[in-house]
Amino acid sequence: MPQGGSFPNIPDMPVGGSDLLANKATTYKDYTCTKVVATGDTKTFDYIPRAGVSSIRITVGTAVGDSLDILVNPSQLTGANDVMFLCNSCDCDQPMTGTTAFDKTGYGGIITGGTQTWEVNPNTAFAPTIIGGDGLNN
Question: What pLDDT sits at residue 89?
Answer without folding.
Answer: 83
